[in-house]
Amino acid sequence: MAYPILNPLCKDPALASSCALAVMAKAPRPGKVKTRLSPPLTLEQSAALNIAFLKDTTRNIADVAATSTAVGLVCYTPIGDESLFEGILPESFALIPQRGDTFGERLHAASDDILACGFGAVCLIDSDSPTVPASVFHQAIDLLDRPGDRIVLGGSNDGGYYLIGLKKPHREPFTGIHWSTSTVYAETVSASRDAKIELAELPVWYDVDDGDTLHMLCNELFGGMPLPFASVPGYRAPHSREFLHRLFGVSK
């Protein structure tokens, strides 16, 4: 199916009470996504795992949206590859293109563009964390629904973050950050506080972007091993579970 594509120049006042849960995603082409997982996976397997992650994350978000004020989106790149998301996302989802050159520019532009569409708040969510608990998304929505301006931040155990939520356009959280390093979360916290923007922190989770974190995901999904930094159980991630079961032959 073809998903609607939002235009930031066309503001919809009906969205003012809604929070956009927007997954930042590349079109799932082999060699363009999850390349740090090759090895141990091939580029084709890495792309297939990325699709499983997208299916799980967006299905989780769609379920959250069904019982809240949230709306599910995918903020995608590159423009022209919209058809590669067909059959992956829930029918309720819409697309909005990314713009900008650096990662910080893309995050900043995504938050600005989604808010310009009329949403009352936005959460930008990574596509590498398929087991983020639904309760965390509900918590982010609730925090952003409260009076007053604030930033909501969900930190990853590697020093980055898996979610950033805003109610108003802000450049500060995306400027001067050393992206793809272990200081991203701390620098974002510092930038938000320096700008005197209230900050609310979510439970710590993790990204799956290399062999070690793939092993962590397998332990979480199949080994029943609790994450040492987690305070709540993760989402079941059935698509990732099924893919890894077929790939490695581990028991479901």
Automatic annotation (TrEMBL):
<protein>
    <recommendedName>
        <fullName>Glycosyltransferase</fullName>
    </recommendedName>
</protein>
<dbReference type="InterPro" id="IPR029044">
    <property type="entry name" value="Nucleotide-diphossugar_trans"/>
</dbReference>
<dbReference type="Pfam" id="PF09837">
    <property type="entry name" value="DUF2064"/>
</dbReference>
<dbReference type="InterPro" id="IPR018641">
    <property type="entry name" value="Trfase_1_rSAM/seldom-assoc"/>
</dbReference>
